[in-house]
Write a structure and sequence with these properties.
By secondary structure, the protein is α/β, with parallel strands linked by helices. About 55% of the residues lie in helices and about 10% in strands. The chain has helices spanning about 5, 10-35, 35-70, 75-80, 100-115, 135-145, 170-190, 210-220, 245-265, 280-285, 295-305, 330-345, 350-360, 365-395, 395-400, 405-435, 450-455, 460-480, and strands at about 90-95, 120-130, 155-160, 195-200, 205-210, 230-235, 275-280, 310-320. It has a five-stranded mixed β-sheet with strand order 3-2-1-4-7, sandwiched between helices. Helix 5 (about 100-115) links the parallel strand 1 (about 90-95) and strand 2. It is globular, with a radius of gyration of 23 Å. It starts with a helix and ends in a 14-residue tail after the last helix.
């Protein structure tokens, strides 16, 4: 089902992000030839604001980094002894899978078994697709043999293909899993309390920190109104980072650092990728929408609208680690990175949903509505336009006006160069932090790869455009022109 039919008269808001981005580019090009001085002034102001943004962004990143380092030193399972009523909390872990080999599934189940939370507090759900039935059934047989008696229960669901009003993908599979598990729980575990059940929706390659579920239980039992919150961990894409290509590594760490910055500002935080949430919220909203691509962030807004704005994201400062995208060749890995970034940029599809929801709900404060709409539009606009404005369009008027003797035009190249050099501080911080987040180096990887890992950040301006702006523009243009994106499965593979 397409967005234009779901949200009624919301077609303009589908088009708006793309119109804003392309309008900015077109206006900048026209003014470059008509009034280059105006464009130069704009670029200098833009770069100056970007420098301030880099500085305060790095401040937030460092705040989250400090909290991450502190949380990693705590024995969260021991701290649960100080908190009452934790024994009633159980964890329901959803693992949707499609064409993954058993080595991926086995590694995830092993990490869950080794977690500090007792295995009898965990219910695992493996959710396969009918389109991948043969391989999935083989994986299930092996999983049941290896882990069938490890956890409180290992449920298995199979999502039929070709159901009406669905987009094949993770969201529709999760929707099927949720509805099936609801009945299974009622039949097999009627004693489980709905308000004491926490769901973790993980990509099947997710390796959770060894104390993830103890920390999650602690938060769930201590934060304000825990049933009105989702729980967002740090997302690392480092399971196979040592064998990934340099642009893929930059994209992976760049995503992690963006999330570090968001975790320090929970008032603007949405859920992303693998995260956790109350079972009660899922049943209240009818589980994940089955006809969208960006189900990981949409589920937060479903809860936000259902509870009339009384829903939030609690930051978790322990990580879950997933695979970076991969391919059989260097070129294929770059293509996979582009497709993944475009799928993440398809989060622009939320704009008509939230505006339609806000129009219908008169109880959510106007200030909160404006905050969410502005943050969403500004984030998508910056994602699509900032790298091109800074590294491409910013230099075009200087080339066209280089013969003019105006003092501002003569000084502009030096000014822009100085601003860019100051902004490089952010790249240096990212390079250092990325080395500290690396998992143990495999023996087959040469020692000098550490050097490559540091100096690869020189590619950031290029990757910023090719795997930042371009996929975002692609996504926004598709939504603007009504060419709706389907769900592209990220290939999982470890060498």
């Amino acid at each position: 089902m397409q967005e234009r039919y779901r949200y009624g008269n919301m077609r303009f808001w589908e088009m708006f992000p793309g119109l804003l981005a392309w309008g900015t580019f077109l206006l900048a090009i026209i003014l470059t030839f008509v009034q280059p001085l105006w464009v130069i002034i704009f670029i200098i102001i833009f770069d100056l604001l970007w420098l301030f943004r880099v500085i305060y962004f790095n401040v937030f990143v460092m705040l989250s980094w400090k909290k991450y380092r502190d949380a990693d030193q705590v024995d969260w399972q021991a701290k649960l002894a100080e908190v009452p009523h934790t024994d009633d909390v159980h964890h329901l872990i959803f693992l949707p899978t499609y064409k993954e080999g058993y080595d991926i599934i086995r590694a995830t189940l092993k990490s869950l078994r080794a977690n500090s939370t007792p295995n009898n507090k965990m219910i695992i759900v493996l959710g396969g697709e009918e389109a991948d039935k043969e391989l999935f059934q083989k994986n299930v047989r092996r999983a049941e043999q290896d882990f069938g008696r490890t956890f409180k229960r290992l449920f298995v669901t199979l999502h039929p293909k070709g159901l009406p009003d669905e987009i094949p993908g993770k969201g529709s599979n999760l929707n099927w899993m949720g509805n099936k598990v609801k009945g299974l729980l009622a039949n097999e575990f009627p004693e489980l309390k709905e308000d004491k059940l926490v769901v973790s929706a993980f990509d099947v390659d997710t390796i959770a920190h060894k104390q993830y579920f103890s920390y999650l239980t602690y938060l769930f039992c201590t934060v304000r109104d825990p049933l009105r919150a989702s729980y967002q961990p740090i997302a690392l894409f480092s399971n196979n980072i040592w064998t990934s290509s340099a642009p893929v590594r930059i994209g992976a760490f760049g995503t992690t650092f963006w999330l570090f910055g968001e975790l320090a500002r929970p008032e603007r935080l949405w859920t992303f990728s693998s995260h956790s949430m109350p079972w009660k919220m899922l049943t209240d909203v009818g589980f994940w929408q089955k006809d969208i691509v960006s189900e990981d962030s949409r589920i937060f807004m479903q809860g936000f609208l259902h509870y009339h704005g009384d829903y939030r994201v609690e930051p978790m400062f322990l990580p879950v680690s997933m695979d970076a995208v991969s391919g059989a060749t260097y070129r294929e890995s770059l293509r996979a990175l582009y497709i993944q970034m475009r799928r993440w940029a398809w989060g622009v599809e939320h704009l008509p949903f939230i505006i339609d929801g806000f129009k219908r709900d008169k109880t959510i404060p106007l200030r909160k509505k404006m905050q969410y709409v502005f943050n969403h539009i500004e984030g998508m606009f910056t994602w699509a336009t900032a790298p091109i404005i800074m590294f491409v369009l910013g230099w075009l008027p200087l080339l066209l006006a280089r013969d003019q003797t105006t003092a501002l035009i003569q000084a502009a190249p030096f000014t822009l160069q100085q601003l860019m050099q100051l902004a490089m501080i952010g790249i240096l911080v990212s390079a250092i932090m990325s080395l500290m987040l690396l998992p143990r180096r495999p023996e087959k990887i040469k020692k000098h790869t550490w050097i490559v890992m540091f100096f690869q950040w020189a590619l950031l301006p290029i990757t910023f455009i090719l795997f930042g702006s371009f996929p975002a523009i692609d996504a926004q243009t598709r939504l603007m022109t009504g060419r709706y994106l389907g769900f592209d499965v990220t290939k999982k593979g470890r060498k």
